[in-house]
Write a structure and sequence with these properties.
Blueprint (H helix, E strand, L loop, with lengths): L1 H16 L31 E4 L3 E4 L3 E4 L10 E2 L15 E8 L2 H10 L15 E9 L4 E8 L4 E7 L3 E11 L2
Antiparallel strand pairs: 1-2, 2-4, 3-9, 5-6, 6-7, 7-8, 8-9
Length: 176
């Protein structure tokens, strides 16, 4: 019995000694990718979203994005999300961005005409603030990404390409 315990101890010591001891929560910043459009990403959205590798729009470190009823899948907005006009293989990248804040009257109209039709949109009231991002990829395909803020620390994102679908809707929340 003592020999078995000693053998097990000898087997597991190298695992403990060679285990990773770095910061597991830190993202790897040395990813090989090009970020030519970081300066072109709209300033109004920089508190909530950032551009990665000219291919993906992701949450910033201050905000968490998640799908409704899920805490494990990390949403992101890829450049290939729009239904393409052309069937071209290969990686897609963003080429152009524009963003505008929507006025209060139009927010109410959009809430009733567009967002309430999304099955996973469970917001009884319109957002306090609404920002529309128009993103264009290298094929010239456009998508509208709506950032709705229901309070200063909560909101949602709806991707419409060209329609707003339930699978393209997720929740945002500021980390404390």
């Amino acid at each position: 019995m003592l020999k078995i315990k000693l053998l097990l101890l000898l087997l597991f010591i190298p695992l403990v000694v060679h285990s990773h001891s770095g910061d597991n929560n830190k993202d790897d910043d040395d990813t090989e990718c090009e970020n030519h459009l970081n300066d072109a990403f709209p300033e109004i959205l920089k508190p909530y979203a950032k551009l990665e590798c000219d291919q993906f729009i992701v949450n910033t470190e201050q905000w968490q994005w998640r799908f409704p009823n899920s805490y494990f899948d990390r949403p992101y907005i890829p450049a290939f999300a729009p239904k393409s006009k052309k069937n071209v293989a290969g990686m897609r990248v963003y080429k152009q961005f524009s963003a505008e804040e929507i006025d209060k009257k139009q927010i109410l109209e959009l809430h009733e005409s567009k967002f309430l039709k999304i099955r996973s949109y469970a917001q009884p009231l319109p957002p306090e603030r609404l920002i529309k991002l128009k993103a264009t990829n290298d094929l010239g395909d456009d998508m509208d990404v709506w950032f709705g803020l229901t309070s200063k620390d909560k909101g949602w994102v709806a991707i419409c390409s060209p329609i707003c679908a339930a699978e393209y809707f997720f929740i945002t929340e500021q980390l404390k």
